[in-house]
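User: Good morning. I'm curious how uridine 5'-triphosphate would be positioned relative to this chain. Could you predict the structure with it bound?
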Amino acid sequence: MNPRVITKAVIPAAGLGTRFLPATKAMPKEMLPVVDKPAIQYVVSEAVKAGFTDLLMVTGRSKRALEDHFDRVPSLEYSLEAKGDKKKLDAIHEATHLGDIHYVRQGDPKGLGHAVLCAKQHVGDEPFAVLLGDDLIDERDELLSVMAEVQQKTGGSVIALMEVEPEQISAYGCADVSVVEGEEFVKVNGLVEKPAADEAPSNLAIIGRYLLHPRVFEVLEHTAPGRGNEIQLTDALQVLAAADGEGSGVHAVVFRGRRYDTGDKLSYLQANITLAVDHEDLGKGLKTWLKEFVAGFED
Ligand code: UTP
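Assistant: Good morning! Here's the predicted structure, ligand included:
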């Protein structure tokens, strides 16, 4: 298949969010606010900015708030208009003007691979992007556009990796890679989901951005539950990495920018602080307070 420009993006947001309990007992983790917007809004904005025009969100039980957030609320708009509160109006329009979002439900959260498979009918036979709904890439750092260039060159699937401390690799999918002569991207030889630190092939962790060849659907249909009894996207990509023929092959971009996993409590707090110190209204006050607060720490 010739590489085609990707227009479709799938945003899985149906996971249980157990790492963030009890906050996520009745509320989707993707709705947790990062500074003043829910995490999912950053992800949808990133997809729109990257040029994806057809967005499909995978949701599930207790996830109604995700759909509501991107709907218009005429009574709220009317009341803000009547008060002449343009700033707040602009803030709510930011979410509702992002474009059309389609939704599909994952009735039973059987893993990320299963969530991606729920998008099969909508995506059809074309390459597509996957952006995890709880994974934030700082908008000041480029990732999807770099991945798209690699996908155009290689025609297969492209994943994003990030170096982590060796003792952290057991929380991620991990990649065994080799250098591609004269290129900045790498070839993926193998992938393993959440390996023990002493068995990990590298300290390169898979992060939540993928450009996938549609052949992944066929593989996912035959992927048995793996780690955690979930259907793992990593396992399907491992098959594609080792396969031959059309749609095979996985390459990777090693991302060196800022990324936050908002499903993880510590990373979530870091996201809030990192983004808030640069926020036009909050930054100055927060920095002043932070300096005083940190100065009071004893090692
Ligand atoms: P996570 O690996 O963070 O899993 O999912 P999780 O189940 O949501 O959270 P924890 O580990 O219990 O805290 C990564 C992304 O994939 C989605 C999640 O919503 C998140 O955006 N996902 C995961 C699904 O859509 N369906 C699933 O079955 C699993």
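The mean pLDDT is 93. Residues 78 and 84 are 10 Å apart (CA to CA).
Let me know if you'd like a different ligand tried.
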